[in-house]
Specification:
single chain; alpha/beta; 10-stranded mixed sheet
Length: 372
């Protein structure tokens, strides 16, 4: 298979983690005789620096012509501390989602057996957790009308949803539930918000088309509590844009690090794959950023093109790295010399030698990620 992949490294640790995802995809290409062509574009603060815009037209064109987009991270502290900044890096991410029509965001949350003790939660609470969050991505308060009064004392952000926006992602979530445990939980705030009441009406109506799926409802404040108290009760979570953003970040507590959570975003014609974490600018160029979320996002890319064996091999390699504690400092306090690139090197080596189980662990810590 030949794929043209647009690569948007972005800001902060984005270029570092995306480099490891590309490294892994190149290894998969060699092993399975695929051709992956990588073409790079600017977005976020990097694009502002070069082009005075967080999303240049050339980047949009690059992504629209590609078969898929691999995205790193976006953001810069210089903009975070300036509430009056009119141009912000995050506008690049929101803009590319809108330009590509990426309305469905899928975020798997899996508690890895080898990392149960890395979570702040009790092992018995999180063991066997396997959730997927379906987050609507191009509507809601993030994209609604925004106003600031002339005197600067009153601000307004509109949360707006249309029926078709809810229907298209709800269908996807119901289908996902059919292939899993046949349970869908709609998370909203229908006791207060009119937009949430529309979500309930639309999803209830659609549920009649999926009689084999049990539909449940939960208010966002309660869902935030239950996700920590008893995450195993959830299978597929369906929710709107901002709620999904918050819940998936919260879910990183379950898995032990936000550096493990991958995501994919889909529209009618385009798809993008990215870790859920931000730019983490304090860690930039220190080699401590966890690349696994980015690598697992690459596995989701392979899934999307029905390359199931290839995606499974990537996940096997990730599992082995976690099992052997070949991880960055966010998960590994025993060995402090395992860098972002060393994690990628190990996973690349495993892909090239999947049958070998006698791993020279000492060499890995000496900087030689070698399977012998």
């Amino acid at each position: 298979m030949t794929l043209d992949i647009a690569v948007l490294p972005g800001d902060g640790v984005g270029p570092e983690v995306i480099a490891e995802a590309v490294k892994v995809l190149k290894a998969i290409g060699l092993v399975y005789e695929h051709t992956f062509n990588f073409k790079y574009g600017l977005v976020g603060a990097a694009a502002i620096k070069e082009h005075q815009t967080p999303l240049p037209e050339a980047t949009v064109k690059l992504c629209k012509e590609a078969d898929a987009v691999l995205f790193g991270a976006i953001g810069d502290k210089a903009y975070d501390i300036d509430p009056d900044a009119k141009i912000r890096p995050e506008q690049g991410l929101l803009g590319i989602r809108k330009a590509l029509g990426l309305y469905t965001n899928i975020r798997p949350v899996i508690a890895y057996p080898d990392l149960l003790n890395k979570s702040s939660l009790k092992v018995r609470q999180i063991k066997d957790t396997d959730i997927v969050i379906y987050r609507e991505l191009t509507g809601g308060i993030y994209f609604g009308e925004k106003n600031l009064s002339a005197d600067g004392n009153t601000a307004r952000d509109v949360c707006e949803y249309h029926r078709y926006e809810i229907e298209r992602i709800a269908h996807e979530a119901f289908k996902a539930a059919q292939s899993r445990k046949h349970k869908l939980t709609l998370v909203d705030k229908a006791n207060v918000l009119e937009s949430s009441r529309l979500w309930r009406r639309v999803v209830i109506a659609l549920s009649k088309q999926y009689p084999d799926v049990t539909l449940e409802f939960m208010f966002i404040d309660n869902a935030a509590v239950e996700l920590i108290k008893n995450p195993k009760q959830f299978d597929v979570i369906l929710t709107e844009n901002m709620f999904g953003d918050i819940l998936s970040e919260e879910a990183s507590v379950i898995v032990g690090s936000v550096g493990l959570l991958a995501s994919s975003s889909h529209g009618e014609d385009h798809s993008m794959f990215e870790p859920i974490h931000g730019a983490y600018t304090d860690a930039k160029n220190k080699g401590i950023a966890n690349p696994i979320a980015s690598i697992l996002s690459a596995a989701l890319l392979l899934d999307h093109f029905d390359l199931a064996d290839e995606a499974a091999l990537v996940r096997d390699a990730v599992d082995k790295s976690l099992n052997l504690h070949i991880t960055t400092p966010d998960l590994n306090t025993k060995y402090n010399n395992i860098s972002t690139s060393k994690v990628g090197d190990f996973i690349e080596d495993f892909i090239n030698n999947p049958e070998e189980t006698n791993l020279n662990f000492t060499n890995i810590h000496l900087g030689q990620s070698t399977i012998i």
